[in-house]
Every structure is written in structure tokens, then in C-alpha cells.
Amino acid sequence: MPKTLQNSNSSPLKSTVELNRLMGEVLNLARQQGVTDASVSVTQETGFSTDVRMGEVETLAFHDAKGIGVTVYFDKSQGHASSTDTSVDSLRAMVLAACDIAKVSAADPCFGLADKELVNNNYPDLDLHHPWSISPDEAIQLAKACEQKAMAVDSRITNSDGVSVSTYTFCNGYADSFGREGLVNSSRHSISCSLIAKEGEVMQRDYDYTTARHPESLMPIERIAQCAAERTLSRLGVRKIKTQMAPVVFSSRVSGGLFASFVGAISGSNLYRKSSFLLDSIGKPIFSENIHVYEQPHLLQGLGSAPFDGEGVSTRNNVLVKDGRVCQYVLGSYSARRLGLTTTANSGGVFNLTVDPTAGDLQAILGMMGTGLLVTELMGQGVNGLTGDYSRGATGFWVENGVIQYPVEEITIAGNLKEMFKTIIAVGTDINLNSSTRCGSVLIEKMTIGGV
User: What total of structural domains would you count in the chain?
Assistant: First the structure.
């Protein structure tokens, strides 16, 4: 029998009008306690997912959850509390708890809402909300059909690690005592297919997936099945390689992680704690001159799009790197004040981080590399944000004369991010559309490859 899961928080979800009223109610309760300032955030999510393996339903999970949080300030003392219960008594208790915390907390001159002059409630509609009118039974049938098509591609596909179909809608809201108020409705749907291929006594696993705001933007299951099968079959005949120094291409599936490490290094919380390898990097050449990195928060239907950040500040097209040089840090209000700067509308992270391509597709990148390693999967968390030292397990393919020769596994790749960033030779056009980081494959001049 399939496992059916139901989120325990099953009280009815609220409409947009109700959520706006709820945020106003919490702010009023906070004012009644004499707070200097206050902010409130609300979230609600609903949807379901199903997992099918070898024609049988393994799980069908329904999700409906909501949450509300309040942050209050008494001058420069801060308190925060949250709840999943939106009854009047629970909201009052939540506000009182936040006030009690603030009254016993140490003051910090950097605490407070985002600056009042940044209030702007003219948020753009980014076309993020496209519910998928698919029933659980239809999702199950879609997953079964995808698995059947994948298993039929080649007789060496002997097993399935599962096909998953999911659909979710979200609503996120923010309001504060300066007058900021905004609600964003969005959706996110995905299909993934994971397979196992066998040749002799050797088995290999790989997968493919698709994610989109709009269900019509999802890859057809025929394509997912074919790609998942081809990826899995390509892993057969795997070999080990010797320890050496060689060029490395990070495929677009994993290249975004390099720039996530960069964003972490120029994020305010790491900078004011002095726990970053990129301290005082504004204006300095961290990358080669052809590298440009920036945000595009207002892309229609973008996976990383948002009209405002976690403090209600309007998002904008921040340029982080131009001609290889760092242009600005990634800051929310608190970290900005700690550094004597102003917020960059990045409370909660970056939005549609984009790295401009400098070359062609993956095949062109491999041609530029000649001989070296193509990395398609990374394992472990071996990145030291303080020193920039980088060491991770990897699998991928050995390439000679620009042509993939055979799959490789049980290797590590190591270097230092400062040197890796400086020696990025090319960024491809093969952007991974399933990621909120818009970056193609990345060719790095040389890294240490640990093998046998």
C-alpha cells in the first residue's frame, strides 16, 4: 500500500485579503504594547507530491501549512516570535512573547527596520503564480508513464530509483510599521526521474528533472525519460584516473555552486564577522576580466524572482562583478549598518543570480579545454569560507581532444576559490533552467584531481 502523508497543520489556508488583514492585526497588537517599531511576515504553502517506483505508488504527500512571525523593537532592543496558529489569542501571545524577549535583550545600534526612505510599495507583478490543475491520480499516472518510457529506452535500464511529480503554491507577505506591505503569490512544479542501469555486475545511477513556475514550461515526460536514460547509460564503463593537475569543467548542473560560494564570501554576515576570504574586496579583480555577475530579480516566471526582499525593500538589478572586479557586497539592513553601508535589498539572499556567458555551449567549452575533467556531480561540503580552500568528491567524465572518452568516479577535486575564480577561462551558454542561478558550464584552467 502507498504511504499517504498529511501535514498536521490542517486548518484552512487564508485568502490574500485575509493575510493582509492578519498582518495589520499583528502590527496593531504590537503597537498596543508600546513598541518603537515592528514587522510581520506570513507564509502559506499548499500542494502535494507523489513518488512512484517500478509502477507502484510509494508516497502521496499532501502539504498545507502556514506560519506567521513578528519582530518588535523597543528602541534598539529586538525580539522575535512566530506561530502556526492564527487565532486572536495565539497572535496576542506571540506578540507578547516577542516583546518579552526584546525587553531582556541587549541593545544593538544596528537593529531596526530597513530605512524609512526605502519604503516603496509599488511592487511589480512578476507572473509567478500558475497553479497546476492536476489531480493526485493524474500525477500518479504521469509519473508511471514517465517511468515506463524511461525503462523502455534500453534493456540495460534494469531498475528505477523513482519518479516524482510535485506541485505547490505559495504566498509570502511582509508588512511593517513604516508602511511597507506586500504579498507575493507563486507556484513551483517539478518532475524528476531517477534510473539504474546494469552492465555485467556493474550498476550505475543517474537522473534528470524539470522545474518551472508554469506547468506548461515543464519538460515533456518523453524528454525527461529519454534524458534520464541517456545520462544513466553514459555512466556505464566507469573508470578511475590517476592523481594529477588538469583543467576542469563544471557542468551547468554544478557550476552554480561556485558562484554560491562567491556570494557567501561577499555576504554581509560573513564580512562583519571577518569570516570570509574576500574581505575588503570592493574594486579588486577577483575574476578574469571577461566575467560579469549580477542579479535579475524581475524576470517574469523566474525561479529566483521576487519583487521585494525579506525586509520589504524593493529588489533591483544589483551588479556584483563587472570586468572581473567586485562592485558591491550582498547586504541586508543589519549587516549593512555593521559595515557602515546601506542595504542592497538582499535580506534573504540573491535573486536570479546571473553569470554572463563568454563562450558557446558545453561542446564548445570541452573543445576549449582539450584534455581534462568534466564534473557532473559533486559530493560533500568541503568549502572553507574563511580561507577559500575547496575540496569535494566528484564524478564525471574524462575528456580528450574535446571529446568525452569515458565516465570516472571516486575522485576529488581541490584548489582554492581565489585561484579558481581568477583562472575561469570560459562560461558556457548552456544555462541550467532548473536553477535560480543562471550560469552555464564553467572551465577552470587547472585544479588538483585526486584519483588512484
Answer: 2
